[in-house]
């Protein structure tokens, strides 16, 4: 679901950038003159946010986009003339742009205050500045001819040179590898779109307004990716990958009058963690979280430690009771295998669950407390069971489930009430 959301806004932004770029020639000249400054505004905003979040990779990619436009604009506005820039500098810059992006993606993310990394980056920029100066002064015409050799001569659709096409394809290839080698990271997918947009803009020829337009939208995409990723980090539990406690508290704000809250606790987790080590304990938390994340008609959150919370919007206790039992049994049936030294151990874990449903007399946080008290009853009753609590903590029911049918989510329920 999260991946789909990111692809949606990326595609919408990319399509709008391509469509609107075709409208630029029809704008008033005064408006077209402002397009050249658009990338500097978006790049500056993006760099400010990246610095605030201590992210060096987005800073470097944004700097590359800004420098690309600044160098083209400067030399096109100088006495050298546009023709000289188009014939000499442009072919070099459109090869250096994807090469730079590739370098920044391959560099490790170490924050903006790493002296060694910053020294290396400064050295790379100085080398490129020297190359650009050499291009303008002494690059042989035979080299320029090779750089400008088109992919397809006399084509009405593809105006790219072979060198540009190869560099963009090579960079896209490595970005795809990075996307497949790690868990979903929005920056890689945004960089892929940035490369596609800039490749499309470069294919339009030496048009400074079009290049500036696509550079600006690339900077916008990078800025949005940092904001969304910061939101994801703030609201998602890093260990288990499910939503965290902050997201739970905000989720409570949007609940209606009818809902059910369940607290889930891993039985004997501390003893398990102390016996087998924290790495095994972390794997247990991830396994349980994956089961809970698949809950039907509900959302799972990590409350803290070995405790999780399930929230069922628009559901009463009797509507989710069998689902809670199904979750308990699914966790219990999972086998965890790991090694301690030379020994291989197979074991399983169990969970205790307490649940309570909404009442207009109480806020969601109080319903959460009632569910926690029902969980405590489950612990006292022997663990590895589901305890259904009414709105008031003194009214708690223990469910004893006998057998399953259909998909395992339905079962016969016999209830005994504890006063």
Summarize the structure.
With 419 residues, the protein is an alpha+beta fold.
Outline the structure in words.
The chain has 419 residues and is α+β, with helices and mostly antiparallel strands. The protein folds into two domains: 2-235, no CATH class; 245-418, Reverse transcriptase/Diguanylate cyclase domain (Alpha-Beta Plaits, 2-Layer Sandwich), CATH 3.30.70. The protein contains 15 helices and nine strands. It has helices at residues 2-21, 29-35, 38-52, 56-77, 82-106, 115-138, 141-147, 162-181, 186-202, 208-235, 245-253, 269-276, 278-293, 317-333, 364-380; strands at residues 259-266, 299-304, 307-313, 336-340, 343-347, 351-357, 386-389, 396-405, 410-418. The chain has a seven-stranded mixed β-sheet with strand order 2-3-1-6-7-8-9, sandwiched between helices. It has a two-stranded antiparallel ribbon with strand order 4-5. A hairpin with a 2-residue loop joins strand 2 (299-304) and strand 3 (307-313). Helix 1 (2-21) runs parallel beside helix 9. The longest helix is centred in the middle third of the chain and has 28 residues, at 208-235. The protein is elongated and about 85 Å long. Mean pLDDT is 84; it is low at 393-419.
Give the tags:
9 strands, 419 residues, Alpha-Beta Plaits, single chain, disordered C terminus, two-stranded antiparallel ribbon, 15 helices, alpha+beta
């Amino acid at each position: 679901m999260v991946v789909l959301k990111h692809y949606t806004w990326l595609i919408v932004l990319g399509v709008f950038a391509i469509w609107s770029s075709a409208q630029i020639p029809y704008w008033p000249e005064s408006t077209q003159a402002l397009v050249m400054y658009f990338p500097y505004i978006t790049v500056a905003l993006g760099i400010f946010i990246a610095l605030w979040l201590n992210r060096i990779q987005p800073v470097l990619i944004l700097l590359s986009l800004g420098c690309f436009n600044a160098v083209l604009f400067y030399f096109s506005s100088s006495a050298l003339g546009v023709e000289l820039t188009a014939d000499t500098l442009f072919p070099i810059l459109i090869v250096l742009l994807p090469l730079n992006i590739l370098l920044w993606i391959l560099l490790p993310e170490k924050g903006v205050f790493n002296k060694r990394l910053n020294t290396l980056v400064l050295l790379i920029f100085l080398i490129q500045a020297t190359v650009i100066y050499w291009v303008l002064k002494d690059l042989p015409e035979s080299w320029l001819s090779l750089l400008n050799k088109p992919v397809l001569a006399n084509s009405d659709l593809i105006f790219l040179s072979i060198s540009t096409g190869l560099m963009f394809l090579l960079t896209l290839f490595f970005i795809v590898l990075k996307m497949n080698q790690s868990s979903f990271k929005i920056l890689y997918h945004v960089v892929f779109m940035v490369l596609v947009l800039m490749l499309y803009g470069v294919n339009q020829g030496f048009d400074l307004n079009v290049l500036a337009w696509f550079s600006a939208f690339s900077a916008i995409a990078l800025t949005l990716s940092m904001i969304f990723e910061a939101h994801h980090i703030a609201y998602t539990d890093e260990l288990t990958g499910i939503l965290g406690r902050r997201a739970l508290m905000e989720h409570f704000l949007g609940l209606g009058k009818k809902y059910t809250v369940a607290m889930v606790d891993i039985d004997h987790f501390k003893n398990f963690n102390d016996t087998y080590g924290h790495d095994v304990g972390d794997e247990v938390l991830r396994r349980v979280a994956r089961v809970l994340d698949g809950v039907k008609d509900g959302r799972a959150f990590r409350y803290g430690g070995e405790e999780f919370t399930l929230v069922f919007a628009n559901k009463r206790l009797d509507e989710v009771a069998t689902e809670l039992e199904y979750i308990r049994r699914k966790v219990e049936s999972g086998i965890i295998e790991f090694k301690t030294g030379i020994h291989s151990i197979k074991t399983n874990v169990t969970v205790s669950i307490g649940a309570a449903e909404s009442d207009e007399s109480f806020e969601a946080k109080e319903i959460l407390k009632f569910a926690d008290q029902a969980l405590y009853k489950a612990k006292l009753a022997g663990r590895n069971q589901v305890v259904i609590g009414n709105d008031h903590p003194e009214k708690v029911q223990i469910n004893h489930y006998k057998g399953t049918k259909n998909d395992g989510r339905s079962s016969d329920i016999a209830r005994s009430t504890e006063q």
